[in-house]
Amino acid sequence: LIMKVTICQLNIEYENKEENLFASEHFISEASASRSDIIFFPEMTYTGFSMNTSYTGEINFETVEAVKKLAEKYSIAIGFGWVKLVENKAENHYTVVSSDKEILVDYVKLHPFSYSGEDKFFNAGDSIRYFEFEGKTIGIFICYDLRFPEIFQAVSKKAEIIIVAANWPERRAAQWKILLDARAVENQSWILGVNCFGKQDNTTYSGNSRIVKPDGELYDKLDDAEGCISCDISDEAQNFRKNFPVKQDRRIEFYRSIL
Question: Closest Cα partner for 142 from 156, 153, 132, 128?
Fold first, then answer.
């Protein structure tokens, strides 16, 4: 069974939900027309990376409902980021909805980016998340999570595909590429890093979205432009793990003892 996946490097208009929703529909339509089964967008897809949670945050799931309608309209599953208001702060969510308008997975970013003050406005999530889709198991992480390899090892016990949705700035683009490649090699998993492009609130994003195969080989990338890239995924991760069984040599109990 082959699954076609598209990742969309969106030029996010800062804090403009309506404009970004309109822009995303164009790419959703294109992905559907190219027979993609699922499309993934960057972190905080419709607002950009904002601490203005009184505006970006939601309690009525308006973004989720809007994307559900697009998923049904274009018969494609959609992954997207949004902000949920909770009692004391907010949560940085990434949700995937099916073409039947069902929520396939809802993930809360485990590591708020304290360097930029995200932790002052956002609560950390407390669990890893993955979902089954077209015979594949897919894990989800958000941006800064990429720097913490332990959670990737945990999710790749089951997941053969891992999505990293980000708003990762141009000035640290080299680290983004290195870390995505490393996570693919370490976990023998497909790693799909989907970033944004353009300028938001005086920060420049160069995109650098990339699809990395389970053996660490770069499948495709998109730099310095808005747009999409796609890949067909079959049993590459399962076959590579079987033929080169690195994970069987992991010493989990020893790692626990030193951590």
Answer: 128
* Rounded Cα–Cα distance for residues 134 and 139 (Å): 14
Structure tokens at 220: 């495709």
Strand partners, 228: 8
Token digits of residue 31: 């992905």
* pLDDT tens per residue, range 173-230: 999 999 999 999 999 999 999 999 999 999 999 999 999 999 999 999 999 999 999 9
Q: How many CB atoms lie within 10 A of CB 103?
A: 13
Residue 102 neighbours by CB distance under 10 Å: 11
Write down the H helix ranges in 42-161: 53-56, 62-74, 149-155
pTM of the full structure: 0.97
Which single residue is written with the structure tokens 């626990």? 256
Q: Mapping DSSP to helix (H, G, I), strand (E, B) and coil, where does residue 202 land?
A: coil
What does the pLDDT read at residue 34?
98
The string of pLDDT tens digits covering residues 61-111 is 999 999 999 999 999 999 999 999 998 899 999 999 999 999 999 999 999
C-alpha torsion 133→144→68→234, nearest 10: -20
For residue 214, give the DSSP letter: T
Please tell me whether residue 200 adopts helix, strand or coil conformation. strand
Cβ(189)–Cβ(160) below 8 Å:
yes
Specify whether the CB–CB gap between 141 and 169 falls below 8 A: no
In whole angstroms, what is the distance from residue 58 CA to residue 172 CA? 30
